[in-house]
Structure to design on (677 residues):
């Protein structure tokens, strides 16, 4: 699964955005917009436009220089967050993309559509706009993320047939190469694939055929995996010092969402969290947040943090916020608690049974079934899938606890009339029993029988 | 004045509403409950039934007193809603024909037979947290910490944790919301509510035996 974040450069800003803002790359008159906020987009401005024409269109547009370091930090934050969905995360900071290998997580998340929705929902909570593509190779999923109306590709054999109709424009081979290809009359990927690799390599260099091989899965695409760091540290730098507490809190809402994802990814929680607010110069305000129980819920942590901050005197405006945690504990709430109640109950139940079986042994996790047999000890079974769990005929009154028949030394007070149960003669186990209800001196209700052949008494059930 | 930020206000309100750790002065906390199916017992329980998201201790003087019948009507309701209930480490075999006769669906019932009490308690916690409507656990555990963990798990999962214990265990304090001792009283069963969060201890007799209802 590829997450493409087309507005990353603007959405990463740690301050609320009012008015049209755009991020620019380059210098002087060659400055070009790489991203802009929704207000700017509303004025008809989009990434790719050069700064002077954008200003002409919208004179109030605020231009901010791009910070590749901030983009890297933001993508790293997203990658940490994404580890809750899979252990295999990789990223490409230059292309604002994060990949999640989700093939092995599908079962846990109960299918692609649920996982897809979770990722989308989570990204929205982080405050990022993303388009997503799902395909068996990294580049194919990246390509699909540009075509959000296309269905996921699940099978490597579908890659060629499905992708071939796509236009060249989305291919990650550089705008110049695309332009040259289009000039020679090529329109779709199919046209491009029809050209022999060595011809492409001679004309455009090895990179182009290599890319196509990786796109279609003919060549492995080996990337460095993003590792979840053992210590969590997330820094937000304000462009201008922030005076208000609200302003200083703003990036922490996102930070704690990312942090929650990170904690889920490593299946842990925290009991202590440090938030440092740096001021101009060496001054800083350190907030230490402690929780009595292991915690990782972003909303709760944010509520705690806000409360703490409200009772803290800030000596000066804030220039930077740092979230830091280096001690981790086992979570109280085990995996999966981000599902809403109803979904969670359904989606996690089978995963839970797997977990129980894994620790207790398969035999320890049992379901009950019925058997059509008159002998009480044979009228039930431990059910395997598909066992009978209801019988057409009505069941006579029976005790809730069943015991292995145990000889009774002293007969308690018998109540009512006996029920004769005869069964098993056809199997050579001739048995004829008279069952009684009885009450012990303590008040317990027993289910006893007298073996008609031996005249001995046995306890076989309790009316619990 | 700036307008409140809904992204903050809504989660906070939800937190305030859903968390039992936050005391809101203006009204009594709402107690979610599931009717026990015994009107006279419901009448003495705040919320009118088994408290949801809480630990309930049941201490029968001996097995076969009606200790399971006490929870049966509630279990039946949960089964009918398609929710799961689990018997963890029961002292005897839960007898399938009787369960079906009393209206429980076997598809909704799980029986956990652990080798060690520790494992049984772990399983109970997992089940409480991850979707079971109720867990019936038989455990000799005494430590306050273990009881607290069950209480927390029930709270986290919005489930009912029924812990079956010996009456002698009830001499120790417990985080349970409700503690009931069962003993024989002639044909009926005497239920001593020795502790009830948000209510008053009292004793009543219940027609617990399935045959008598």
């Amino acid at each position: 699964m590829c997450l493409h974040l087309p507005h990353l450069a603007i959405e990463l800003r740690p301050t609320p955005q009012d008015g049209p803002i755009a991020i620019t790359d380059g210098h002087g008159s060659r400055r070009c917009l790489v991203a802009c906020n929704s207000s700017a987009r509303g004025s008809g401005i989009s990434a790719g436009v050069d700064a002077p024409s954008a200003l002409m269109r919208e004179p109030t547009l605020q231009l901010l220089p791009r910070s590749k370091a901030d983009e890297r930090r933001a993508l790293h934050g997203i990658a940490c967050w994404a580890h809750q969905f899979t252990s295999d995360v990789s990223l490409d900071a230059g292309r604002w993309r994060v990949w999640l290998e989700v093939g092995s997580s599908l079962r846990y998340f109960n299918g692609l559509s649920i996982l897809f929705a979770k990722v989308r929902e989570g990204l929205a909570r982080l405050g990022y706009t993303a388009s997503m593509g799902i395909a068996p190779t990294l580049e194919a999923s990246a390509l699909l993320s540009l075509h959000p109306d296309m269905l996921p590709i699940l099978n490597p054999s579908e890659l060629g047939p499905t992708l071939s109709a796509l236009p060249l424009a989305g291919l990650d081979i550089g705008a110049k190469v695309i332009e040259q290809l289009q000039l020679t009359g090529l329109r779709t990927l199919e046209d491009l694939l029809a050209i022999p690799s060595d011809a492409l390599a001679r004309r455009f260099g090895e990179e182009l055929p290599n890319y196509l091989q990786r796109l279609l899965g003919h060549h492995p695409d080996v990337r460095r995996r993003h590792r979840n760091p053992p210590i969590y540290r997330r820094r937000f730098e304000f462009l201008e010092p922030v005076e208000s507490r609200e302003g200083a809190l703003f990036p922490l809402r996102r930070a704690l969402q990312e942090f929650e994802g990170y904690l889920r990814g490593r299946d842990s929680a925290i009991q202590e969290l440090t938030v440092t607010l740096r001021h101009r110069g060496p001054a800083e305000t350190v907030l230490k947040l402690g929780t009595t129980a292991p915690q990782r819920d972003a909303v709760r942590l944010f509520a705690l943090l806000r409360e703490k901050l409200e009772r803290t005197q800030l000596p000066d405006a804030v220039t930077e916020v740092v979230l830091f945690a280096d001690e981790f504990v086992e979570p109280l709430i085990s995996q999966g608690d981000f599902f809403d109640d109803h979904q969670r109950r359904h989606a996690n139940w089978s995963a839970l049974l797997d977990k129980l079986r894994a620790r207790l042994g398969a035999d320890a996790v049992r379901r009950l079934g019925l058997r059509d047999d008159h002998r009480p000890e044979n009228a039930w079974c431990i059910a395997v899938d598909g066992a009978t769990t209801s019988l057409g005929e009505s069941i006579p009154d029976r005790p809730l606890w069943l015991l292995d028949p145990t000889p009774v030394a002293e007969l308690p007070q018998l109540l009512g009339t006996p029920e004769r149960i005869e069964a098993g003669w056809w199997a050579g186990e001739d048995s004829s029993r008279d069952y009684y209800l009885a009450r012990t001196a303590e008040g317990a209700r027993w289910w006893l029988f007298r073996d008609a052949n031996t005249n001995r008494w046995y306890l076989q059930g309790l009316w619990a | 004045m700036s307008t409140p930020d809904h992204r903050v206000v809504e989660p906070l309100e939800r937190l305030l509403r859903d968390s039992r750790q936050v005391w809101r002065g203006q009204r009594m906390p709402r107690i979610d409950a599931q009717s026990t199916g015994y009107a006279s017992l419901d009448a003495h329980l705040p919320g009118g039934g088994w408290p949801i998201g809480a630990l309930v201790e049941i201490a029968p003087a001996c097995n076969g007193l009606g200790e399971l019948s006490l929870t049966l009507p509630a279990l039946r309701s949960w089964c009918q809603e398609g929710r799961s209930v689990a018997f963890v480490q029961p002292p005897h075999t839960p007898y399938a024909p009787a369960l079906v006769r009393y209206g429980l669906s076997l598809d909704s019932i799980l029986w956990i037979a652990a080798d060690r009490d520790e494992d049984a308690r772990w399983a109970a916690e997992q089940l409480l947290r991850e979707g079971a409507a109720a867990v019936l656990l038989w455990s000799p555990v005494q430590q306050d910490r273990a009881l607290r963990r069950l209480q927390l798990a029930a709270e986290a999962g919005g489930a009912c944790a029924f812990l079956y214990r010996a009456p002698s265990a009830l001499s120790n304090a417990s985080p349970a919301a409700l503690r009931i001792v069962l003993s024989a009283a002639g044909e009926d069963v005497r239920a001593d509510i020795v502790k009830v969060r948000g209510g008053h201890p009292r004793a009543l007799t219940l027609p617990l035996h399935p045959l008598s209802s």
